Amino acid sequence: MKALVYHGAGKKHWEVKAPPQLIESTDAIVRIIKTTICGTDLHILKGDVPTVDAGRTLGHEGIGIVESVGESVHNIKVGDKVIISCITVCGRCRYCKRQLYSHCEEGGWILGHKIDGTQSEKVRIPHADNSLHRLPEGIDEEAALMLSDILPTGLEIGVINGKVQPGNTLALIGAGPVGLSALLASQFYSPAHIIMIDTDDNRLHVAQQFGADTVINPTHQNVVEVIQKLTDGLGVDVAIECVGIPATFKICQDIITAGGHIANVGVHGKSVELHLEDLWIKNITITTGLVNTSSTPMLLKSLQSGKISPEKLVTHRYSLSEIETAYEVFGNAAKEQALKIVLNAE
């Protein structure tokens, strides 16, 4: 088979690789139908995730068909069409019992990180019963692909951690795929006013189409002044950071109101300044986290009922064999006006 293989910082190649085999009785082998590229993959290629070894197949999102299962797999059967969760879940360890699946002692984020991932023709999925979600008939595959990682991330680490409530004023900093996913998910909780902040006017336009009430471009607007005016000088109730750089985390600290919540979703490759000298007296809550995907079954039901349309995030489509071209496009997202890229197996 062929796979997109990481060969150290800045190096990747679509190449022949031995197909995966069942190792444990709880494994499944899944033939990929659709996969995509995540911002985390770009962080790996930049060298921001040193725990990824050279020779690793990248990718942690996908839709596929189950080709074989181990003897201990009971809920998933050969021929099932499934969503591959970005988080592998044993279901038995102390962290799984707390629904802290991202820290599963036998799993967590291992696909495309500690074991070979989904940017390939086939992938081995450990703990298949807990780490695959059977896809009901009639569900759009591109929409379902967004449930592998990006939509649960926006909901759990952004919206739920940020404790978005009805009537809140919410600011999202970063209108990339994760920020837009958080924007979509936030509307389950009926915030009164949603503000999207980004330096890309095209993405701000998309955010307005997705439900943002106000958009701010820091390139030619003073973010703090605009938000102070919008909130009668109080600041926002919730600020969700969706980029992962010091400047966007600073914006969150500058615009949050007393008693507010800052939810960090972005993957940070270097340290940021935490202004506790300003925040301590404001009763601010700051949360961080890696998605647990505990919300995936609920999101799948919402998708079935038509309450959410994550397929709107898809802007580009390529065949799986064109993945190196797709990476170039995704790596120049602003220029290419790219959000999520779907890679289709031939």
Descriptive labels:
6-stranded parallel β-sheet, 12 helices, alpha/beta, Rossmann fold, Quinone Oxidoreductase, Chain A, domain 1, 346 residues
Précis, in short:
This protein has 346 residues and is α/β, with parallel strands linked by helices. The longest helix is centred in the middle third of the chain and has 11 residues.
The CATH C-level name of the largest domain is: Alpha Beta
Q: Tally the helices: what do you get?
A: 12
Second CATH tier, the architecture of the largest domain = Alpha-Beta Complex
**Oligomer classification:** single chain
The total count of strands amounts to: 15
Q: Report the sheet-strand fraction.
A: 15-25%
Shape: globular
In terms of structural class, how would the helical and strand content be classed? alpha/beta
Element-by-element helix/strand order: EEEHEEEHEHHEHEHEHEHEHEHEHHE
The total domain count is 2
CATH superfamily of the largest domain: Medium-chain alcohol dehydrogenases, catalytic domain
Mean pLDDT, to the nearest integer, reads 97
Q: How are the elements arranged and paired?
A:
Layout: E1 2-6, E2 12-16, E3 28-36, H1 39-46, E4 62-69, E5 81-84, E6 122-125, H2 128-131, E7 132-134, H3 141-145, H4 150-160, E8 169-173, H5 177-186, E9 193-197, H6 201-210, E10 214-216, H7 223-230, E11 236-241, H8 246-255, E12 256-264, H9 276-279, E13 285-287, H10 296-304, E14 314-319, H11 323-331, H12 333-336, E15 340-344
Parallel strand pairs: 8-9, 8-11, 9-10, 11-12, 12-13, 14-15
Antiparallel strand pairs: 1-2, 3-4, 3-6, 3-15, 4-5, 5-7
